Amino acid sequence: MIQRGVQAMAVTREAMLERPWEHSSPWLRLAFWDGLWALLIAVGSGYAYWLYQPYMDGYEVAIQIGSTLALITWGLYWKPARRFVLTVALLTVVALWRYGADYELRKSAFLLKYLLESQAAFMWMSTLYVLATATYFVALFSRSEFIGKTATALTWSATVMGLTGLLVRWRESYLLGTDIGHIPVSNLYEVFILFALITALLYLFYEDRHRTRAMGGFALLAISGAVAFLLWYTFDRQAHHIQPLIPALQSYWMKIHVPANFIGYGAFALAAMLGVAYLLRSGAEAHRPQGLLARTLPPLDLLDDVMYKAIALGFAAFTIATILGALWAAEAWGGYWSWDPKETWALIVWLNYAAWLHLRLTKGWRGTPMAWWAVIGLFVTLFAFLGVNMFLSGLHSYGTL
Question: Which stretches within 177-253 are classed as H helix?
């Protein structure tokens, strides 16, 4: 028996030498994958810098370094982000490789024409988001785990295609000419895509954290609304064509101000749609407590909690965006604040959500009044984003329909 024990120990030791990670502690394995993730992002960022350094100034290098650190942190904090980022990176690299230096290949190369060219990717994104919206509601009322997983997969797939399309569009703008090239967050068409992606990622994060898909249909309704606008804007106004940047937007500030703004917009939209779900559930419980809506809609406590977290995140991002916008204004127009209509309505949006959070945190307000407030707040935000451009004029009058 002693001999057999010695032989077993020798076999185990040999196996550990051949496959050390299978026999190491969970913490050691976790540190390995975390380190590998950080290394992959750092190497990818370094390669991108090597390729595009001629187009970058010192500010843009600083933005790239900050983005690299943020991406590493995001992947460490939320593990599903890793697969998402790596999939998008792979598809983008394939698209850039297929393009080479010939923009016209988008019309003839099968892979580009039907999948990875930016407009094709956006069409896939739009289709998948609408399908995901319907599938989430089917999953909610059928209580089918399989259909729910399908809805989640559709949402992830749509988000992958959307972000891939934005990154490919960025490269396409440079293929049209170095004087045309710019980050694709410069007009309503591009920022509505950004809005859809950020809102979807925020929802997927809360879905993963709370282990429930019950909120999915409501969150995706806001995204489907953005998709409807995009389709109209594409086919009626031909807004999908890449245009040179106007002088007012030719600044590195755009690369950080606009994304920060749309984290806020996406979070506010998510909170509003959850507010709608809250109002439906509370109304159903009051009038028909045993009815279908009362039994199937997400629990009120869950909706209230995620609504609060979304508004808190959105408020933080919107605050940062407003500060960045003031710094940009000082550089472009010589003053931090000019009471331009866009600036004034941005302040109204900020005050609206500041008051919401103040009453929640200091007075303990919850429930139906706060849900109504979140819904109305979305209309205030929507006017600040679209209405100002449509009906008012000022220094920001370059995003009209």
Answer: 188-210, 216-235
Q: Are residues 68 and 97 in the same domain?
A: no
Reduced DSSP (H G I as helix, E B as strand, rest coil) percent helix, strand, coil of the chain, to 5? 80, 0, 20
As a whole number of angstroms, the distance between CA 149 and CA 155 comes to 10
- Are residues 374 and 267 part of one domain? yes
Query: What's the domain range around 270?
Result: 75-391
Q: Which of 138, 116, 134 is nearest to 125 (CA)?
A: 116
Other CB atoms within a 10 A radius of the CB of residue 137 amount to: 18
- 396 lies in some domain: no
Q: Within this chain, do residues 281 and 361 fall inside the same structural domain, yes or no? A: yes
Distance CA(226)–CA(266), nearest Å, equals: 11
If pLDDT is split at 50, 70 and 90, which confidence band does 6 have?
very low
DSSP 365: -
Count of domains for the chain:
2
Inside any domain, residue 398: no
Q: Which two tokens stand for residue 310?
A: 């979304």
How many residues are given for the chain? 401
Q: Residue 51 is encoded by which pair of tokens?
A: 């390729």
CB atoms within 10 A of CB 233: 17
Closest listed residue to residue 128, CA positions, set 145, 95, 92, 153? 153
Q: For the chain, what is the mean pLDDT?
A: 89
Task: Please state, in angstroms and rounded to a whole number, the distance separating the CA atoms of residues 133 and 198.
Answer: 16
Q: 138-155: b or e for each residue (b if 16 or more CB lie within 10 Å)?
A: ebbeeeeeebbebbbebb
Instruction: Give the dihedral of Cα atoms 249, 253, 254, 257; nearest 10 deg.
Output: -140
40 and 139 in a common domain: no
pLDDT for residue 8: 47
**Is residue 306 a contact partner of residue 206, using CB atoms and an 8 Å limit?**
yes
pLDDT one-digit tens code per residue, 35-53: 999 999 999 999 989 988 8
In the block, residue with structure tokens 């003031």? 326
Are the CB atoms for 219 and 268 separated by under 8 Å? no
Single out the residue in 24, 50, 74 at which a domain terminates.
Answer: 74
What is the per-residue pLDDT across 153-189, written as a single tens digit (0 to 9) for each? 999 999 999 999 999 999 999 999 888 988 999 888 9
Phi-psi category of residue 242: left, alpha or beta, with phi > 0 → left and psi -120 to 50 → alpha: beta
Largest Cα–Cα distance in the chain? 90
* One domain for residues 23 and 116: no
